[in-house]
Amino acid sequence: MPITKSEKKSLRQNKKRRKRNLTYLNKMRLLIKQEKKLISEGKPEEAQKLIPKIYKALDKAAKENVIKKNTAARKKSRITIALNKALSKTK
Question: Looking at residue 65, which CATH number applies to its domain?
Answer without folding.
Answer: 1.20.58.110
